[in-house]
């Protein structure tokens, strides 16, 4: 019974292996027939055999089918373990459904010796670490060990298959970007023209938004390079930390770009940096959503992704791409240095041009100074002679005018001496008239003001509290203040009522509203 169950398990495993490895069906049939012919049908037909005899027959049958045969197999790697001291790789080869993702076939495999060497070469050529969840084309052989059972041994791995597969996916993404985002992404020759790489960089880059991993060594190199630059430039850096590894994490990087846009800070540039790693570690930067977001972003994007071989889609869509975070920092410093050198050159040109202008104008001024001095001497001599002539004319003319004016003054003086008495008499009469009129007006004005004062005095006496109280009115106080109305009074409120001849203390027992406040009774 045990042997029958064991044979069933072997047949089931081999059928699964056939489905994955695709060896000829007739070979499998021969193997199954040989196994059945070599085994007793029931326990009563022949005596039992040892397990080693059974496993030996299985080993012999498999060797007859798979001896010196190898197969190129396309599969995914799972459950990978590597023992560095021995150089052994243990893993599972898995085939999955294209759309559902379910496992179609699975078999354990091992790689040592030449197989391990080929894996090492694969990692060097592709930059891709041999690990779980990678899609590979491997050359395998099939064997059987009496202790370890069915053995699938990796003999070789096709590096071009993995590289070509990644490149094919990349080209499909680029085609999708140029098709679906044609309004801000287009291809010109070997270069992609995007809205982002057409933005002008500021003349000086100082305020930066950095998207990276918080524990990234590349980020530390980036900051160290910026902060310890030889030119003493200072930078304002805002960190937007996120995960920058794993194709499925692209939405997190996109969200950080959205956060930068929504914050509305006037950044000079956005820097996306990541340290080195395997090629598949950079697949996040070959995604459609991240390429689209970078191409459309309204602030220049500088990439410093630590890849040395291939250019990612994010690099193609960005304003400026560098190979490492340190190179990105050096680019920013060089950009600012270029501006500084332009300013220094401009300063030197201004100094040289100024010296040339000063020299030319100094010579012109010297010439003008000499000309002015000579002309001034000539003009002064000419005007001195003219002034001397005019001085003589003025002296003669002034003597004649003074003599005439003296005669006129003598005539006027005689007339003035006779007129003052008449003028003084007239002014005295005018003053007497003014004094009389002022006295009459003053008496009338004072009488008028006395009548007004008497009127106001009578009015004040009538309006005084004493007069009002005599007419039967009373004054009501609450807390020392006169009440203009009963709005603040409530039953139980304490008041003081002042009459003509007495002051009364009272408590409100009832309040009746006679009319609405602000209306006539």
UniProtKB/TrEMBL annotation:
InterPro entries, per database record: Exonuc_VII_L, Exonuc_VII_lsu_C, OB-fold_nuc-bd_dom
Highest taxon of the lineage: Bacteria
Residues of the OB-fold nucleic acid binding domain: 50-157
Chief site of localization: cytoplasm
Catalytic activity: Exonucleolytic cleavage in either 5'- to 3'- or 3'- to 5'-direction to yield nucleoside 5'-phosphates
Localization terms from the record: Cytoplasm
Leading EC class: hydrolase
Domain annotation Exonuclease VII large subunit C-terminal: ranges: 193-506
GO MF entry, a single one: nucleic acid binding
One BP term from GO: DNA catabolic process
UniProtKB keywords: Cytoplasm, Exonuclease, Hydrolase, Nuclease
E.C. number: 3.1.11.6
Protein family per UniProt: Belongs to the XseA family.
NCBIfam families: xseA
Name of this protein: Exodeoxyribonuclease 7 large subunit
Native source species: Chitinophaga ginsengisegetis
């Amino acid at each position: 019974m045990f042997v029958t169950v064991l044979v069933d398990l072997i047949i089931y495993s081999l059928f699964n292996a056939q489905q994955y490895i695709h060896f000829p069906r007739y070979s499998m049939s021969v193997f199954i027939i040989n196994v059945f012919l070599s085994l007793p049908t029931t326990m009563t037909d022949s005596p039992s055999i040892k397990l080693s005899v059974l496993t030996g027959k299985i080993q012999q049958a498999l060797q007859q089918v798979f001896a010196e045969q190898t197969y190129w197999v396309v599969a995914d790697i799972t459950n990978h373990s590597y023992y560095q001291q021995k150089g052994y790789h243990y893993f599972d080869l898995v085939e999955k459904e294209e759309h559902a993702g379910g496992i179609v076939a699975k078999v354990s495999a091992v790689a040592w010796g030449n197989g391990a060497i080929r894996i090492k070469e694969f990692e060097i050529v592709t930059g891709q670490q041999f690990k779980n969840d990678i899609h590979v084309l491997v050359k395998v052989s099939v064997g059987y060990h009496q202790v370890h059972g069915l053995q699938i041994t990796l003999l070789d791995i096709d590096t071009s298959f993995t590289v070509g597969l990644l490149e094919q996916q990349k080209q499909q993404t680029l085609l999708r970007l140029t098709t679906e985002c044609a309004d801000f992404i287009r291809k010109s020759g070997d270069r992609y023209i995007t809205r982002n790489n057409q933005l002008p960089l500021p003349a000086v880059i100082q305020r930066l938004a950095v998207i990276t991993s918080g524990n990234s060594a590349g980020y530390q190199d980036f900051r160290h390079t910026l902060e310890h630059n030889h030119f003493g430039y200072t930078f304002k850096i805002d960190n937007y930390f996120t995960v920058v590894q794993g194709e499925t994490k692209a939405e997190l990087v996109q969200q950080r770009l959205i956060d930068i846009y929504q914050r509305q800070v006037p950044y000079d540039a956005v820097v996306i940096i990541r340290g080195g790693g395997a090629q598949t570690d950079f697949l996040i930067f070959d995604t459609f959503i991240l390429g689209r977001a970078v191409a459309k972003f309204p602030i220049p994007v500088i990439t410093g992704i630590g890849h040395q071989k291939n250019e990612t889609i994010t690099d193609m869509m960005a304003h400026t791409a560098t190979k490492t975070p340190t190179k990105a920092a050096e680019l920013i410093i060089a950009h600012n240095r270029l501006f500084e050198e332009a300013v220094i050159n401009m300063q030197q040109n201004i100094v040289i041009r100024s010296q040339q202008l000063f020299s030319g104008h100094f010579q012109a001024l010297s010439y003008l100074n000499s000309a002015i001095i000579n002309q001034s001497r000539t003009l002064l001599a000419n005007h001195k002679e003219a002034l001397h002539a005019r001085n003589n004319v003025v002296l003669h003319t002034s003597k004649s005018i003074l003599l005439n004016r003296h005669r006129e003054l003598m005539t006027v003086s005689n007339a003035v001496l006779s007129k003052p008495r008449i003028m003084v008499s007239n002014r005295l009469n005018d003053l007497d008239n003014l004094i009389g009129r002022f006295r009459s007006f003053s008496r009338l004005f004072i009488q008028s003001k006395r009548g007004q004062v008497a009127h106001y005095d009578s009015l004040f006496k009538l309006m005084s509290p004493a007069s009002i109280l005599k007419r039967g009115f009373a004054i009501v106080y609450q807390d020392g203040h006169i009440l203009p109305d009963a709005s603040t009074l409530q039953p139980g409120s304490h008041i003081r009522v002042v009459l003509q001849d007495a002051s009364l203390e009272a408590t409100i027992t009832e309040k009746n509203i006679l009319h609405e406040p602000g209306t006539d009774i």
